[in-house]
TrEMBL record:
InterPro entries: Ergot_Alk_Oxidoreductase (IPR051604), NAD(P)-bd_dom_sf (IPR036291), NmrA-like (IPR008030). This is NAD(P)H-binding protein. Coiled coil: none annotated. Residues 2-251 form the NmrA-like domain. It comes from the Bacteria.
Amino acid sequence: MKIIISGSLGNIGKPLATNLIASGHDVTVISSDSNKKTTIENLGARAAIGSVSDAAFLTETLKDADALFAMTPPNLGGQNIIANTTEAGRAFAKAISETKIKRVVMLSSIGADLPTGNGPIAGLYHIEKLYNELNTSITFLRAGYFYTNFYNDIPMIQGAGIIGGNFPSDVKIPLVHPEDIAQAAAEEIVKTSSGKNIRYIISDVRTPKDVANSLGDAIGKSDLPWVEFTDEQSFQGMTQAGIPEEIAKLYTEMGTGLANGKIANDFITNNYSIDGKIKLEDFAKQFASRF
């Protein structure tokens, strides 16, 4: 199959490309960074350098392809993020429609069933709606809260001896490892399917207390506490760390959506399967190597 992957060679794109190339597929990787061209080619793929917001570029890239893994960057532009993310989805939708590509796997998220109250995930809600209007086979791959987000807490652990967020220690959170997303995407993209389908990709469902315990044990801090911050404390902490206000506001809203259970509700109440293989304790070992 001729397969197009967006998302460059990140935590999902690289293992996905490696998997598909090893299986004998003709892979093209989209990247906005021309410096990645040689790295992509050394992996055994073709490089398509351009913007996922450019419908003409996407149409040319998708021409004659069999399948697409569609991923939009979460913080497009740093301002007007929801609008920019949605516009990238619109560009993809136009290219998909014009090229009549037969199979699409879209990276989405838990909480993408909600139009509001989910922070940056709102952009994915709008993209799912756009893709639902297309006449092609699409799987919405709704991923959990990335384990790798906890890498952002390393300075707090090192400096204050705590880990935390604006959600309580006992709320259930569907978690996922990027490698499990890549594996699920590789499975879905080669399927002969029709219509629109939703697949959740979750590696584990745990509480923040479990996260603190597992990460703490792995780094030799068995008493590492999870501290619940207020929304204001969370927002101020991010902005003081140099995160732009719009992004900080969106991530604070996402934390609120995790706290009240709305973001995880569809996955948990409908008892979807946990397909990922990398459990929290497995990730904790990776976290310790980075700490």
